[in-house]
Amino acid sequence: MEIKGKLLQFLPPQTGEGKNGPWKKQEIIVEQQGQVPKKVCVSVWGDKLNVTQWPGGAALTVQEDVESR
Hints:
Layout: E1 2-10, E2 14-18, E3 21-32, E4 38-45, E5 59-63
Antiparallel strand pairs: 1-3, 1-5, 2-3, 3-4
């Protein structure tokens, strides 16, 4: 799935300890452009996101695999 939009916010990073060792998660809020803008929360696991890369309001494209539990 691909989401194109504007970066609105970085949520606080989360960390923890699981049965496979330590984990790290960062969530971002992206606003999709369109007639009715929609806000989407995207979770990024591990070291795949560097929060110093983008300023707020930056245009970006997110490619993700959707998973639900």
